[in-house]
């Protein structure tokens, strides 16, 4: 998150992109390779544990175990690419979980201003002339709260997405927390799977309560704006093992 949000001179001076003077692009790619290696290692570790006869009991199995239990018709264990593809299939079976994540991204995008874009041609937008090659900053925080797009925009209502095909993959411009087009976040495919997987696993494994008896209606939802979006007043949710 720090690297993605760090100001990059190459975004403002295209001639520097191939040079990558601050090495931000290089470090981001390194981080994503580490994440892929981490997740692949978790899958392989679980598979090795099963080969040794350590099958999960119904009381301690998790989302990854559910996917590993899925076998092809010919009886062979699924490969790593198959497991990653199945994550997408399982996500599709959790519509309300998807709706909660989408609504969270709508109201609280991780980065309020997307990386700079450039106008490919001169256009008129809302009575303003945007000249060709103008640098454009997209305020996705404001877009997510636009009453012309969203009904009750300041209310957290995941149900709005239950009968909607709107997604955050860059095709629906009213919801683009990861950007769109050629400048879309390169980590979107990973985030698409892992955000749902982590949230589903946490909800499956624990009950949750707010710290110090705080009530949900008393949570301070004000935000602190910066390169990334943070809560002005942090709070803790305490996990209780089921």
TrEMBL record:
Heme binds at residue 185. GO terms for biological process: secondary metabolite biosynthetic process. The keyword Ribonucleoprotein does not apply. It comes from the Eukaryota. Its cofactor is heme. Pfam families: p450. One of its GO terms (molecular function) is iron ion binding. Keywords: Heme, Iron, Metal-binding, Monooxygenase, Oxidoreductase. InterPro entries: Cyt_P450 (IPR001128), Cyt_P450_CS (IPR017972), Cyt_P450_E_grp-I (IPR002401), Cyt_P450_sf (IPR036396). The keyword Heme applies. PROSITE patterns: CYTOCHROME_P450. Belongs to the cytochrome P450 family. This is Cytochrome p450.
